[in-house]
Amino acid sequence: METESLVETLEAAGLSPYQAEAYVALLELGTASATDVAEASGVPAPRIYDVLRTLEEREYIETYEAGSLQARAHSPSVVLEDLRRRADRLEAAAEEVEQRWEQPELEAGGASIVTRFRTVIERAEAFIEEASHQILLSTTTANLRRLAPALRDATDRGVSVRVSVHTDDANERPDPTLFEDICMEARHRPLPAPFVALADRRQASFAHHPDFYDRYGVLVNDRTHTYVFYWYFLTTLWEPWKSVYDASEPGLPIEHLDVRHLVRDLRELGWQNAPIRLRVEGYETDTGEECTVEGTVVDVRVPFASEADTGFELAGQVTVDLDVDGEHVSVGGWGAIVEDVEGTRLTIVDAPIE
């Protein structure tokens, strides 16, 4: 580093211009009188004594009398420690600035646009760590491995996790062991896809596929906006693709991702001909309070005569009616308004299964 650059760096580290000039001059002179330091550094002679005294107070140099005031630089250990401490603080400040710019705190009902995928996946990891009900994830195998510890912890605490893995190569099939202990079900989409992470129907973390020309990410902490990402996940990243891993045990209980999936199973089980008992975890639509109800299915209301009319019950109101200890309770899916309960986890606990 040239002398001028060293002086500028010392100024950035907290020395005044005169202090930096005098200290650098002393490093080159070794030991010198105050007059010689002033001459070598360009510090005005009337100011040199105050400058040297301040440097001595900071333990950069020491002074002594030998006919005239003499000065010499201390062992650089104190200076080096000071500079390194300041460098650490600057590095920490740089990281904090980057984090605050890239990862704005999401308030309830908020959404943010970010420019780096690292921010998107870090926020997704935080969403997963905080989730208590449900996680839906669309990702590559590489990013799935990164998120695996958080997903495993979520599964261990009873969160329902479903993963859609996408690959660029249609012939590349993910190893089923990749999903062990981290999700309930996994599906494979043999096409590039965005990264999507949804937690508890409230938080969303989204980023385009890396090859997409317009690269940005979206972070959401809002049920309404997350609902849009949910439908994208369901219709494009989940429903059309085959399962490559299923951790559910044969028989009962049978847990469902959505009320529309539940209706499909209820048809197959012939709910009209035999009692089917359903446990619903979700929210009361009039209060927003969490609730759990369990009862017998007494009716299924869908907008079309059969699933063949739509391929899947994607449009219109889908409702399952329960008899809960003699009381009628209607159950809808995500965003339910007219039903009594918005179901987040729908589990068939008793049914005539051979």
From TrEMBL:
<comment type="similarity">
    <text>Belongs to the transcriptional regulator TrmB family.</text>
</comment>
<dbReference type="InterPro" id="IPR002831">
    <property type="entry name" value="Tscrpt_reg_TrmB_N"/>
</dbReference>
<protein>
    <submittedName>
        <fullName>TrmB family transcriptional regulator</fullName>
    </submittedName>
</protein>
<dbReference type="InterPro" id="IPR051797">
    <property type="entry name" value="TrmB-like"/>
</dbReference>
<dbReference type="InterPro" id="IPR036390">
    <property type="entry name" value="WH_DNA-bd_sf"/>
</dbReference>
<feature type="domain" description="Transcription regulator TrmB N-terminal">
    <location>
        <begin position="10"/>
        <end position="65"/>
    </location>
</feature>
<feature type="domain" description="Transcription regulator TrmB C-terminal">
    <location>
        <begin position="112"/>
        <end position="348"/>
    </location>
</feature>
<dbReference type="InterPro" id="IPR036388">
    <property type="entry name" value="WH-like_DNA-bd_sf"/>
</dbReference>
<dbReference type="Pfam" id="PF01978">
    <property type="entry name" value="TrmB"/>
</dbReference>
<dbReference type="InterPro" id="IPR021586">
    <property type="entry name" value="Tscrpt_reg_TrmB_C"/>
</dbReference>
<dbReference type="Pfam" id="PF11495">
    <property type="entry name" value="Regulator_TrmB"/>
</dbReference>
